[in-house]
């Protein structure tokens, strides 16, 4: 992974001191609230419903054991002993003290971490495939390019005060695990016929109030142009993006208003004028950054396939976990392990200090000290020898991190919702909790197959409900919490946005509705058909009928928003 | 009382900014850009959202261009300043006025602004400190076009 040098460390040290000074001036009454709000947001600090929330950056979801231990100790010393893994592969602390945040940032800088640009109207943490570098279906490792973009976008003189937040995601594998279609900029990496890395650039995707799928505006962009091309996009957006209405300020609105074609032409015209400027990447820099992401010297490990097969036969729970949470590795005899945070009784993505320390230890014991955070809010250990899977499984089970549900319906993506967030219309964690409780039978879940269920507490869509195969959105109806349900969203290749099935439901109806939707799927599917492909084939009506027609006595909520 | 910071120092402001053109235009007037052609002024002020493609050539010949920041978090003026310096080769004084918050001056300065109208003396002093709080950056800028990988990290 990327290693900080003196330049990075000095930058971070100065940035922390700068933020400490800003906090001191705010506490001394020298900075008005609305100004300090923008300054603290650029260091990841929100003021939430109950307390501040600090969002710590985990660039493209990669960190090492030392860093994770630091997160554990910070959550112990400055918070209530737990943190929350977010859908941007970051970690959020829910209970820090505003006055202590500079100390937290100082401690983070000790292990080359920060909270820079994890909120505010600027370029946010760049995200990518949590399996980058180890996935069997990978063409190009996206991490070096995510790192180049991270550096370029950090404290950019021109683009720190954009009309609205700006999210960039990259994917270098065949399956898109980074949801690039629903980002302000999505970049697909590939290798061309001459073995050169090139980029396809999508722009204007996003969730929120006005969900949109990104449009392809540039194909086969050469490596050295990565930063200047993104600069051109951001300059067009900074100049012309709307600032009069924050709900119309994202780049997707501008792209739609101009049309992707005209927007692309505008970007090209700008890019023509800057592509040879000094910001063009040098081969030396591309090589330098790629050098940090070379695979480790894999230890020669025993061929674990025979013992693995017999362990799987002997232990059905282990078998289920391997089937669901272990993914194919590039390297023979190694595996990628997803440690699910989605266990009954725990808000999705919440992890305790004890769990963080344990995961850090396992990363060193079974791998090369590296951990990933996935955008679906789980831990990933990228380099586990197959013959040690059973050992890891037993340890993970003891720590509550071995739910065999990766990619299944109970691997819910869920925002903090009305329990914490001051923007939320409704609670989301209790809904996730009820779903996890109701559907805890592995055989049933496994029979349902891959199913993304995503929950957001408001239309800002932090829980990605638009791209859930089943999406649940909290809405406020005259002061009461209601839930709108949509079907057919998809965040991966062939991305699509969900369609609302009809009037919304009260909280105690939600689980029953999900159950009826699943029944409709089971009744309609053909052999081997997933929920999503079944929905795409039969359409929304069979699902709608099952939910609304079967209960004529149910009170209709026709005014649902 | 607004205070002018020029080249990291508090200085007397020799210019006067005019909202509209009076009958007699003093030689130290900063006039609205639309009224440049009706006067012999050598300084103009603009809003951050003007089309630089339309005004850039004219502006680049002036002694001073002042950019109005209507809200402190409005970054349009940053793109405008950077383009005026880099694309149109403007060499005169580039001044920020309006909602100029001290913590924003480091960004403005890296986009080519060398003069800032701050709200008061304290804000002016804070701005000067803010501008020296960071010593180097990841990307090129108007004042340092070469990113680190063409300088220190290339060695």
Please summarize the sheet with the most strands of chain A: 6 strands, mixed
Shape of chain B: globular
Low-confidence stretches of chain B: none
Number of helices of chain A: 18
Oligomer: heterodimer
Q: Identify the strand order in the major beta sheet of chain B.
A: 2-1-8-7-6-5-4-3
Low-pLDDT residue spans of chain A: 552-561
Strand count of chain B: 8
Sheet of most strands of chain B: 8 strands, mixed
Spatial extent as radius of gyration of chain A:
23 Å
Anisotropy-based shape of chain A:
globular
Mean pLDDT, all residues of chain B = 95
Largest interface: A-B, 42 and 42 residues
Strand content of chain B: 15-25%
* Number of DSSP strand runs of chain A: 21
What's the Cα radius of gyration of chain B?
16 Å
Strand percentage of chain A: 15-25%
Q: Indicate the structural class of chain B.
A: alpha/beta
Structure overview:
Chain A is α+β, with helices and mostly antiparallel strands and 561 residues long. Helix content of chain A is 37%, strand content 17%. Chain A is built from 18 helices and 21 strands. In chain A, strands 16, 17, 18, 19, 20 and 21 form a six-stranded mixed β-sheet that branches. In chain A, helix 10 packs across helix 11 (316-325), helix 14 crosses helix 16 (507-524) and helix 16 packs across helix 18 (541-549). The longest helix of chain A has 22 residues, at 6-27. Chain A is globular. Residues 552-561 of chain A have low confidence and may be disordered. Chain B has 155 residues and is an alpha/beta fold. Chain B has four helices and eight strands. Chain B has helices spanning 52-59, 76-86, 105-110, 121-131, and strands spanning 3-6, 9-11, 16-17, 29-32, 43-47, 64-69, 93-98, 115-118. Chain B has an eight-stranded mixed β-sheet. The longest helix of chain B is centred in the middle third of the chain and has 11 residues, at 76-86. In chain B, 43% of the residues are buried. The model of chain B has no long low-confidence stretch (mean pLDDT 95). Classes of the chains: A alpha+beta (561), B alpha/beta (155). The A-B interface holds A 5, 7, 10-11, 14-15, 17-18, 21-22, 25, 30-31, 35, 38-39, 121, 151-152, 154-162, 227, 235, 238-239, 243, 273, 277-279, 281-282, 284-285, 288 and B 49, 71-76, 78-80, 82, 87, 101, 103-104, 106-107, 110-111, 122, 126, 129-130, 133-142, 145-150, 152-154.
């Amino acid at each position: 992974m990327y290693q900080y040098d003196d330049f990075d460390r000095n930058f971070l040290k100065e940035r922390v001191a700068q933020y400490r000074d800003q906090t001191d001036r705010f506490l001394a009454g020298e900075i008005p609230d609305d100004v300090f709000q923008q300054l603290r947001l650029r260091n990841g600090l929100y003021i939430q419903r109950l307390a501040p929330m600090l969002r710590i950056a985990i660039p493209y979801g990669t960190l090492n054991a030392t860093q994770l231990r630091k997160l554990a100790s910070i959550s112990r010393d400055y918070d209530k002993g737990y943190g929350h893994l977010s859908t941007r592969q970051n970690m959020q602390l829910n209970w820090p003290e505003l006055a202590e945040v500079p100390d937290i940032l100082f401690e983070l800088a000790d292990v080359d971490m920060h909270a820079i640009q994890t909120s505010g109207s600027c370029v946010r943490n760049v995200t990518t495939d949590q399996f980058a570098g180890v996935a069997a279906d990978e063409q190009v490792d996206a991490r070096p390019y995510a790192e180049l973009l991270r550096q370029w976008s950090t404290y950019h003189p021109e683009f720190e005060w954009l009309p609205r937040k700006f999210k960039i995601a990259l994917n270098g594998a065949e399956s898109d695990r980074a949801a690039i279609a629903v980002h302000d900029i999505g970049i697909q990496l590939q290798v061309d016929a001459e073995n050169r890395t090139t980029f396809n650039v999508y722009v204007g995707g996003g969730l929120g109030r006005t969900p949109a799928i990104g449009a392809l505006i540039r194909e086969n962009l050469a490596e050295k142009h990565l930063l200047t091309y993104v600069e051109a996009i951001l300059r067009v957006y900074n100049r012309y993006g709307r600032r009069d209405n924050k709900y119309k300020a994202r780049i997707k609105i501008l792209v739609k208003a101009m049309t992707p074609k005209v927007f692309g032409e505008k970007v090209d015209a700008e890019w023509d004028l800057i592509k040879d400027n000094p910001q063009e990447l040098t081969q030396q820099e591309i090589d330098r950054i790629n050098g940090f992401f070379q695979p480790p010297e894999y230890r020669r490990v025993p061929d674990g396939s025979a013992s693995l097969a017999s362990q799987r036969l002997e232990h059905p729970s282990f078998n289920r976990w391997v089937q669901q949470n272990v993914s194919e590795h590039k390297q023979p005899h190694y595996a990628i392990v997803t440690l699910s945070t989605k266990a009954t009784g725990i808000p999705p993505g919440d992890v305790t200090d004890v769990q963080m320390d344990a995961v850090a230890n396992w990363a060193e014991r079974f791998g090369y000290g590296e951990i990933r955070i996935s955008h679906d809010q789980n831990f990933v250990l990228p380099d586990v020898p197959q013959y040690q899977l059973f050992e890891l499984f037993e340890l993970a089970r003891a720590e509550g991190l071995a739910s065999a549900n990766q990619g299944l319906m109970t691997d819910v993506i869920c925002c903090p919702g009305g329990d914490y967030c001051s923007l939320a219309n409704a609670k989301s964690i209790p809904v996730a909790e009820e779903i996890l409780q109701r559907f805890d039978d592995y055989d049933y879940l496994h029979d349902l197959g891959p199913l993304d269920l995503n929950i957001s507490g408001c239309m800002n869509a932090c829980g990605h409900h638009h791209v859930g195969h089943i999406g649940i959105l909290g809405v406020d109806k005259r002061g009461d919490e209601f839930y709108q349900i949509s079907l057919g969203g998809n965040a991966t290749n062939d991305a699509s946005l969900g369609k609302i099935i009809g009037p919304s439901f009260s909280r105690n109806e939600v689980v029953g509705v999900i159950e009826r939707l699943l029944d409709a799927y089971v009744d309609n599917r053909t052999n081997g058909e997933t929920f999503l492909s079944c929905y795409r084939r039969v359409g929304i009506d069979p699902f709608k009928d099952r939910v609304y027609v079967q209960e004529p006595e149910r009170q209709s909520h026709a005014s649902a928003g | 009382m607004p205070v002018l910071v020029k080249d990291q120092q508090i200085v007397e402001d020799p210019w006067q900014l005019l909202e509209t053109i009076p009958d007699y235009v003093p030689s130290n007037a900063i006039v609205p850009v639309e009224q440049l052609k009706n006067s012999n002024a050598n300084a103009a002020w603009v809003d951050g959202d003007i089309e630089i493609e339309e005004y850039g050539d004219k502006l680049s010949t002036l002694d001073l261009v002042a950019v109005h920041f209507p809200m402190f978090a409005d970054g349009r003026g940053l793109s405008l300043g950077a383009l005026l310096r880099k694309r149109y080769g403007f060499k005169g004084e580039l001044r920020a006025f309006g909602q100029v918050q001290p913590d924003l001056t480091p960004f403005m300065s890296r986009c080519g602004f060398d003069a800032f109208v701050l709200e008061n003396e304290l804000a002016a002093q804070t701005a000067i400190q803010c501008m020296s709080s960071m010593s180097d950056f990841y990307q090129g800028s108007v004042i340092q076009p070469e990113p680190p990988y063409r300088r220190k990290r290339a060695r």
